[in-house]
Amino acid sequence: MRTVIQRVQSASVTIDGEIKSAIGKGLLIFLGIEDKDSEADIEWLVKKIVNLRIFDDENGVMNRSIIEVNGEALVVSQFTLHASTKKGNRPSYIKASKPEKAIPLYNEFCDEMSLALGKTIGTGQFGADMKVGILNDGPVTILIDSQNKE
């Protein structure tokens, strides 16, 4: 699983002109899934994300996790995170999982994030044309790939 995590003051997902989800201070998590991803990747990634110390403490140092600041999370599926640009100028998405594999893993990831945070999280809609509004805080943007744990 490949993620782009952004620390945000607020974020939202709009589908067909209607807001599906919106959060305040927290993390916007773009999630790309490939065929070799599994429940073990979900467990590792969720633990890594909820413990990332990327929120400011009282001294303005990034030393607090989303749990410690009682932040919110919004998870948006994004198959384009697995784009290959090695050949030509048109990206290939051959590594991105098909919906029948990706949707259950996306849903499980969202459930585990919600459990880890002890609150409902915001989500996008798999396969939908989503408009994502972001007020990036910092900016702080972190890339994590569960296939590169070391």
TrEMBL record:
Checking Gene3D superfamilies in the record gives: D-tyrosyl-tRNA(Tyr) deacylase (3.50.80.10)
Under which EC number(s) is this enzyme classified?
3.1.1.96, 3.1.1.-
Q: Which GO terms describe its biological process?
A: D-amino acid catabolic process
Does the keyword field hold Cytoplasm?
A: yes
- This protein's record includes keyword RNA-binding: yes
Q: Which CDD domains match?
A: Dtyr_deacylase
**Do you know which Pfam families this protein is assigned to?**
Tyr_Deacylase (PF02580)
What role is this protein assigned?
A: An aminoacyl-tRNA editing enzyme that deacylates mischarged D-aminoacyl-tRNAs. Also deacylates mischarged glycyl-tRNA(Ala), protecting cells against glycine mischarging by AlaRS. Acts via tRNA-based rather than protein-based catalysis; rejects L-amino acids rather than detecting D-amino acids in the active site. By recycling D-aminoacyl-tRNA to D-amino acids and free tRNA molecules, this enzyme counteracts the toxicity associated with the formation of D-aminoacyl-tRNA entities in vivo and helps enforce protein L-homochirality.
How does the record describe its quaternary structure?
Homodimer.
The family classification in the record reads:
Belongs to the DTD family.
- Name the UniProt record assigns to this protein: D-aminoacyl-tRNA deacylase
Species for this entry: Macellibacteroides fermentans
Q: Which gene specifies this protein's sequence?
A: dtd
